[in-house]
Design a protein that fits this description.
The protein is mostly helical and 54 residues long. Helix content is 76%, strand content 0%. The chain crosses the membrane at residues 26-46.
Length: 54
């Protein structure tokens, strides 16, 4: 398995955020990213169903 320094930095930042502020902020960020991802996925999938009745 290949080691990714960016992933290690991201993991360290998440661990630091949990230690300093508790899990509330991290959970809030994860939920916001999930909701935005669902909205963008729905938009991408549903835009193909638009019909032009010319």
């Amino acid at each position: 398995m290949e080691h990714h320094p960016a992933a290690a930095r991201l993991t360290e930042a998440a661990a630091s955020a949990v230690q300093q502020h508790g899990t509330g902020n991290l959970l809030r960020i994860v939920l916001v990213v999930m909701v935005l991802g669902c909205v963008l996925t729905a938009w991408f999938l549903l835009r193909g169903y638009k019909r032009k009745d010319d």
